[in-house]
Each structure stands twice: as C-alpha cells, then as structure tokens.
Specification:
Layout (H helix, E strand, L loop, with lengths): L7 H15 L9 H8 L3 H21 L9 H21 L3 H14 L2 H12 L5 H29 L3 H21 L12 H14 L1 H32 L3 H8 L3 H16 L2 H22 L3 H26 L7 H53 L3 H5 L3
Helix pairs in contact: 1-6, 1-7, 1-8, 2-3, 3-5, 4-5, 4-6, 4-8, 6-7, 6-15, 7-12, 7-14, 10-11, 10-13, 10-14, 10-15, 12-13, 12-14, 13-14, 13-15
GO molecular function, one term: transmembrane transporter activity
InterPro entries: MFS (IPR011701), MFS_dom (IPR020846), MFS_trans_sf (IPR036259)
Main location: membrane
Amino acid sequence: MNSKSLNKSTVLLMAISAAIVVANINYIQPIEADIAQQFNLPNAVIGAVAMLTQLGYAFGLLLIVPMGDIMNRRMLIMRLLVLAIISALLAFVAPNIWVYALASLLIGITSVAPQVIIPYAGFLAPRNQRGQVLGNVLSGLLVGVLLSRTVSGVLASYLPWQMVYLIAAILIAGLWLVLWRKLPHDPVTTHTTNYKAMIQTVPQLVKRYPVLRASAVNGFVLFGVSNIFWATLVFYLQHQYGWGSREAGLLALLGVTGVLAAPLIGRLADRFRPRTIIGLGLVLSTLAYVVFWLSGTHLVGLIIGIVILDLGTQFGQVANQTRIQSIDVHASSRFNSVFMFGYFMGGALGSFCGNVLWDLAGWNGVCGLAVVVLMIGFYAHFVHYPRVVTRQAQH
C-alpha cells in the first residue's frame, strides 16, 4: 500500500468529512418542537418523522455501504455527498410535513458516506498504522455526533429552523469541492462482481468469519448500553435535580473524552491484540454502570460514570474497526456494513428498552438492564467466540 496517499493532512480531511456528514442525522433532534409548531402537528408525529432518518440510515448501511467493495470508493463518496446536498436542500424548502418526511428519510440514506470513508481509510493505511488511522477518522465521526445537536439547537434559537439544513447543504458543498481535489484516488481500478452478487455475499461473510460476528455482537452490546444511559438521562436529571434537556446536552459534551482518546486507543490496537482492547471496553462500561448505580445521585459520580462509559464505548468501537478492517481489504466495506448495522441496532434497541425500564423500575431498572446486557457481552466475547477468531483476522 502506498502510504504517501494517506498523509496526516489526508487523514485529518477524512475525519472532518466524517464529522460534517454524520451530523446530518442528528440535526432534527433539538428542533423537533420548532418543526411541530411550523407544521401545526403533535410532537409525537415529528418524533415518528425523526425515526425515518434513523431508518434511512439503517437501509443505507445495508444497501449502500457494501457498494464500496465493487465500485470506485472515491466516486461513491462524491456521489453520496451530492445526494446529501440535495436531501438537505429538500428539507430546507419543504412546504409540508410530507415533503419534510421524505427529506428526512433521504438524509438518513445519504448520510452513510462516513461509513464508506472509514473502511477506505483502513484500506489505504499501512497495516502497522491502521488502528491509529482509524482512531483519528473515528474521532471526526465522534465530533460530528457530539456537536451536531448543540449546533442545530443554537442555530435554531437565532434563525428559522430551516436554515440549519441550508447551512448543512453549504457545508457539504464546500466539502465536496475540497474532496474532489484532495481525496486520494482509489488504487483498485477493476471490479468483477456486480451489485446483486455482492449483496448476496454479505450473509456468506457473516457465516464465514466468526470474528465479524463477534465484532457485530460486541458493537451491539457496547452501543446498546451507551444508549440505555443517554436515552434516559434527561428523565433522571428531571427526577433527581429538576433539570432538563439543556443540562443533558451540556453533560453530553463530556463525550469529548472519547474524541481525545480515540487516536490513543487506535495506537493501542496496533500494539496489542484488538480483542484485548475490546475486553477492556466491556470492563470500563460495566464499571461505569457500577458508578451510576452507587453514586449516580451525586453529580460528581454521574460525571465520572459518563467519562468511563464513553471511554468503554470508544475502546470497543476503535478496536472492533481495527480488527474487521484487517480481515480482507477487498471486502472491507461489507465488513463495516455488518458491524455498523449491529452497532446501530444495539443503539436503537438500547434507547427503546431503556425508556421502558425507566417507566417500569426507574434508575435501578435502567442500570440493571445495562448490566444484564453487558453480561451477555462478556459471555459472547470470552466464551462463545474464543481467541481463535482473532487469528482469522491475522491479529
């Protein structure tokens, strides 16, 4: 692999690109009330529209991201960005809720470009630097997730909510121009597999590689327990302190810990077995919930628990990406698609089940649910998928 095509400035550009694009799927959350007022609709209807973005993202993971293995990845990224611009502009001009709902679905589908960029970065990176490169690009992804809600909420407090989407479209258009000049050309020039045949190979890859199944399960568990917490935090803050969404948003900024740690975690994954780092992620996430359970009634305990939980999530995310991107570079996009689908489904179910347990049993129910899920993760990692799966990934 020619590492000259992936210097530090290129990795930084990929990280910034991931941040700008992934932000699209989260812009709606702080402005749902403004949209409901604009279209004179109940909040529940806008909540359902917001789910369309997540649904579109899931379809994009399954049906678009694997295309990176059968076509020029650089061109796929550029085309997705064009479609993302169109989707954002459609949301900006939407005259009614039906058009806006369609735009929301399309925004989710076209926001999967970072999930093409991530395996592309892993493909271009020298093998002994793959973890570090992926850690840096994932830092950008985390920044986008972290700041998107804050940016959207602040902009909508000063400007009409539609302007959020116009500004998003302008940012992506500027990004497109930069990437057209700076994004490395895909060194793979010929592909012999068509789309239908490629999609049919995804279940075969899942069956063939236990390490891929192990990573998907681990991602499901770690992102699931992360979302169990974040989906119920605002209710807990209201109950415990009389606080609301603003304070929950400020606490979310503690996620910068994961942003700062991701490159270090990547270097650790290069130096040690990624499987070891993933196990540490499970331990840290469990420790976080022990802190929440025992000391969550105190703000200091809550803050410490959040930092530990975010570190545990990122240990798993970076290390899992490192090992699945080392299985077979010619199927890296399909591996990423499977992993991120498991990751996403864990997060979605974690949010849903966390809310249910909060209604049924309060904070004790939330923490108990997370611990049960983590025990399943420990069993899967240390018992069901033994050490031999790592050797298949050549780690």
